[in-house]
Request: fold
Amino acid sequence: MLRISEIFYSLQGESSTAGMPTVFVRLTGCPLRCQYCDTEYAFSGGEIMSLEDIEDTVANYQCGYVTVTGGEPLAQSECLPLLRKLCDKGYAVSLETSGALPIENVDERVSIVLDLKTPGSTESQKNREENIGHLKSADQVKFVICDRQDYEWAKAKVQQLELCSRVDEILFSPSFGQLMPDQLAQWILEDKLKVRMQLQMHKLIWGNEPGR
Reply:
């Protein structure tokens, strides 16, 4: 059983599958309180659902891509069996996690998008850097950049953790409404970083509307 905030069908707004129609399974609860969080409604509430009911709801959308997100999905232990079941059903499954909880038991078929928290998030002290050693090359590491200090911090972490040799995709995303995209783009180009800059496509289309 899992507490589910919402299950919805939309375009993937971030990561290497941005733009792809995707079913999102948003789990309730999160141990972090990032200052820019846009899903505070998922901190509490939600509906208790069995894994079978979740699978049935996902299947109704007839979509091959599923993203399990939160909140922090790994805060619920039954998230791991859910990920495994979705992979067994043949879905291309991704997991959006803060990296504040261990990822070593996540099914290897899952594409992990690990969000390393920058100082600007106010939650960087909760980063579990030992998770980096459990990443696969097909996984992704994301940094949400709030300002120049965050950018320099993220750039240093990419080098310190040798991320370019660990994962195929390193994502730099400007914090929505806090850092102008063209400014982040300029910094990346000036420093010739081997990262992918991304914008939150769903916000550009629908704004901050929940369930998008």
Q: What stands out?
A: The chain has a mean pLDDT of 95. The chain has one domain: 2-206. The beta strands are 2-11, 21-27, 47-49, 65-69, 92-97, 111-115, 140-145, 169-174, 196-197.
